[in-house]
Amino acid sequence: METAKLIAKDLLSIQAVFFRPDEPFTWASGIKSPVYCDNRLTLTAPQVRNDVENALADVVRREYPEAQVLMGTSTAGIAHAAIVGHLLNMPMGYVRSGSKDHGRKNQIEGRLEKGQKVVVIEDLISTGGSVVEVVNVLREAGAEVLGIASICTYGMARGIARLEQAQVRNVSLTNFDVIAQVAADCGYIRLEDVKRLLAFRDNPSDESWMEGAK
Fold first, then answer.
1. 3-state secondary structure at position 60
2. Quick count: other Cβ atoms within 10 Å of Cβ 67?
3. pTM metric for this prediction
4. Helices 176-185/2-13 angle, 10° precision
5. How far is CA 100 from CA 95, 105, 194, in A?
């Protein structure tokens, strides 16, 4: 829990996670969201980046000790996989969203042998669709996917269900619940907003959480 709170504080401090419950953001789908996430900002904040990458390395050591290769998701997970791979002295690569239309037409970049044990490095898991696609590509290539190490997860029901259906484990450094509570504790939002944020997390398409807005 201490790591989860530390990473939450880090992400909030650089607005990689930014809560605005009274002035919601609008997703491309039209859904109103009280939260904006951009974990790429960790890359330009050296101290936060240090905390994140060392914590991800600890997750791989502790939770996936048999790992042989790290594979980042494209594009957000690539830099994290590279840094963690450097810290652990492990090979890394990444999985494209689709095969290249030239050259060797690779979808998996970097050397991957059949039977190798892989950990996928992801920055954020919401509905889980993109990371499950990466897992499936790696499995089709003959890899044994041990699981996912991610910076944070929303904990949305759809995302949890997708990971369970794909039979893949995810270990996140922090999660939406912890970040919301830390945001309240540190004065980024009001304490009474936490319940509204969790209501959004439980059902993003239900806008009743907005009723508490000023």
1. helix
2. 19
3. 0.93
4. 70
5. 11, 4, 43
